[in-house]
Amino acid sequence: MDFSNHAQTLYNEIEKIDAHTHLNAERTALQQEGEEEGFRFLSINTEIPDFPSTTRQREIASALDQQHPTPVNFIATFSTEHWGEPFWQDQAIDQIKQGLQKGAVGVKIWKNVGMVLKDKEGQFVMADDPSFDPIYEYLSEHRIPLLAHQAEPKNCWLPLEEMTVTSDKEYFSNHPEYHMYLHDEFPSYSELLEARDRVLDKHPDLPFIGLHLASLEWSVEKVAEWLDRYPNAGVDLAERVCHLQHQAVDRPKKVKHFVEAYRDRIIYGTDQIDDGSLSAPELREEIRGKWHSEFQFFADDTIQNAWNVKKPFRGLGLEKGIIRKIFRDNAVRYYPGL
C-alpha cells in the first residue's frame, strides 16, 4: 500500500509498538523490519498446543531481545496442564513469578479456559471458576496486568453467510471444528463473556486488557459500554482492525467517535505470528502490509480498501496525538516496564 504524504509523515514521526505478536522462532526478521519501520515488539506467551512450550516462548523472547537492537518485551502465562490437582494453583503462581523475574510485563489467560479445559465431570471450566481466584488476587495485589483472550469473534457463532469479514468466513470455512455455530455442546458466546465479566466484578482492582477488542469487535457501542463498566480495563486491536473498518463502511463517524472517546484505552497490535513457516522476506512483507494498511486507516480520512472487508470504507483521519496513544503510549501505560 502506498501511503498518502500525510500518513507517511505521521508514520515516520511516531515511535510505534506492535503490542500483540507471537515470536516463536529464534530469528530476527521481524526485528529487522521493525527497525526499518519504527516498530518494537511485545511477544505474548500463550498456552496454544501447536506453539512451543511457554518456557521456550519466554526463552525465545529473551534471546531476540539480546540479539538485535530493536527491543522485544514479553507477556508471561501459566499452564493449565495439572488444573484440579492440589498443587496446581501454587505451581501456576510460581510460573507467573518466574516470568516476571525474567522481565515479563503482564500475564495472559487464553480461550482454552472456557473452550477446552474440562473438570472431572466433563464440564467446561470457565474463567470465573474459583480455582483461578488466587491467581487473580495475586495479580491484583501486585498490580500486574492480566491480558485475556476469552471467546472468539461473534462471527464464530454465526452461519458463514452472516459473517461480517472475509478473514473469518475463510477461516471457519476451512476449520469447521472451530466454528461454534456448528457445535452446540460448547459454551455460548454470551456465556463465555459473562464469565469473564464476573471475574472483573469480583476483582475490581485487577488491571485488565480485553484482547481482540474484548471479543466485542462487532460493535463499537458494545466495546464502549464494556469500557465504561470496567474503568481499570483497556482493549487491544489485534486481528480486529478489520472489524472497525467493516463498521466504517456505513458508520465512519461512529467509529471515529469511539476511537477519539477511548483514545487512552486502545492498544495497537497485529497478532502476527512468526513460527518459521514463512521465509524471512515473506514474513517481512506480510507484517509491513498490515502495519501500512492499518496505520493508514487511522491516519487518513480517504476512501480505502482492505482484503478482508467486503466494501470500501472511509478512514478515520485522527490527529497525531491520538495515533501516538494508540500505537505507543497506551501500551507503555498499561504494561509498566515496556
From TrEMBL:
Residues 89-336 form the Amidohydrolase-related domain. One of its GO terms (cellular component) is cytoplasm. Keywords: Hydrolase, Lyase. GO terms for biological process: secondary metabolic process. GO terms for molecular function: carboxy-lyase activity; hydrolase activity. InterPro entries: ACMSD, Amidohydro-rel, Metal_Hydrolase. This is Amidohydrolase.
